[in-house]
Amino acid sequence: MKKILIPIDFSKNSINAINYALALFKHEFCKFYILNAYQEDINLSNAPITKEVINEVIRTAGKDSQLQLKNTLKQIKKLSQNSKHLFKILSANNILVDEADRVVEEKNIDLIVMGTLGKTNNKKLTFGSHTLQVLKYVRCPVLVIPQGYTYKKPNHILFATDYSMPYQQRELALLNEVASDYKSTIDILYISDSGSLSVRQEGYKSFIKENLKNTKIHFKITKDKNISNEINKYIEDYETDILVMINRRHSFLENILFKDNIDKISLSIKIPFLALQNMRRT
After folding, report:
1. Is residue 273 classed as helix, strand or coil in its secondary structure?
2. CATH number at residue 188
3. What angle do CA 10, 88, 184 make, to 5 degrees?
4. What domain range includes position 50?
5. Phi-psi category of residue 85: left, alpha or beta, with phi > 0 → left and psi -120 to 50 → alpha
6. Range list of β-strands (E), 75-232
7. pLDDT confidence of 109, banded at 50, 70, 90?
8. Closest by alpha carbon to 38, among 13, 73, 69?
9. Number of domains observed in the structure of the chain
10. DSSP 8-state secondary structure symbol assigned to residue 150
11. Are residues 27 and 74 in the same domain?
12. In a 3-state reduction of DSSP, which class is residue 52?
């Protein structure tokens, strides 16, 4: 059974991420962990700072979190009566990135699904701060759903890579299952100003081919120094439904996402985005 963690803050964006996940994995046996980490929502600015007051504020925040989670679960079960899906709600007095990391380790989570933006809904940003933190620090594949995105069958998947690092079989299996369920075509796009592959890169390419053998794969090469522009152009030209990239140290995804000025990220993602192989960064 696939284990999927969905962090929510009860915003429209986070609820939309739930709806997308339920639709995408409708063919799979899944257990969904719906998580609300509420520590950052606790407001002590107008309260006298005593131990009793702090404990009461925290207790109230916890009760509110539990109530909203239960109401959300009722809505989910009304909309989706899929017998293959099980649900568990989780409420935690913790910051999201730390709690998500803990749950991933404890429950052996296969995938995190979340919205690009949360309550702040800053349209100038490609990703909100919570999403960026999860992408950066939680060691688990993350599927990010853009604001307002309506579910669409993933007929065409773009996997942008530079073949510069080994892949994890478990995570390629996740991609293989999605593509197999929907008979999706996967375009594996190598972006480089050289165009040729080293012996090591050819080995990584063969590993991908072997682990995505149940899908339709097209290997493509493009020469462009501006990776973001090339990906955006490809998505528009080929009606892409999901973008897949590797997220590890020194990967070009890391270079795109984790700049000092995150509001200047040049990769404008308007479709669901799957980041594989998240590794801890110190």
Report:
1. strand
2. 3.40.50.620
3. 80
4. 2-143
5. beta
6. 85-92, 111-115, 142-145, 156-161, 185-191, 216-222
7. very high
8. 69
9. 2
10. P
11. yes
12. helix
| pLDDT tens, position by position, 19-43 | 999 999 999 999 999 999 998 877 7
Domain boundary among 143, 164, 196: 143
Residue pLDDT, tens place only, 110-161? 999 999 875 555 454 456 778 888 988 899 999 999 989 999 999 999 999 8
In the numeric block, the tokens 């690009």 are attached to 116
Q: Which residues make Cβ contacts (< 8 Å) with residue 210, sequence separation at least 6? A: none
Instruction: Enumerate long-range contacts of 205-210, CB under 8 Å, 24 or more apart.
Output: 205/163, 207/166, 207/167, 208/159, 208/161, 208/167, 208/172
Angstrom CA distances, 53 to 43, 61, 91, 165, 201, stand at 11, 12, 21, 51, 59
Amino acid letter, residue 186: I
Q: Does a structural domain hold residue 281? A: no
Q: What ranges make up the beta strands (E) of 193-264?
A: 216-222, 242-246
One-letter amino acid of 17: A
